[in-house]
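Write out the bound-state structure for zinc ion.
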Amino acid sequence: MTRYCTKCGAQNDEMAQYCVGCQAPLPSIGGYQPMQSVNQGPMTDWKAMGADKKIAAGLCGILLGWAGVHKFILGYTTEGVIQLVIGLVTCGAGGIIGLIEGIIYLTKSDEEFVRTYIQNKKGWF
Ligand SMILES: [Zn+2]
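---
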């Protein structure tokens, strides 16, 4: 049994995965290609888009919210500084803002989190 390369016409062994003539990947027997999942729509990798910061930002908001740590994690430098000043001025009572924000972060889905805080840059709550 031999198969012919669709690109250069070279004869290839039945089990060959790549053409001996042009190195092009050969179609699998019967045209079945397990690596190609055509029917699956494009999956959005929310984690890669910033949702991986959700847990860290949420926990920091709850534990270190008064210092604005969660805002720095999300890249909100201005808001982080403001939060830090509020926290210092209020002797930590301003941390209630971070606490609430941290809980909000953790209750959001990865998609909501990315859309709200990474894409829309929502600085507060
Ligand atoms: Zn070939």
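---
The beta strands are 2-4, 11-13.
The helical segments are 54-64, 69-73, 77-89, 95-107, 110-119.
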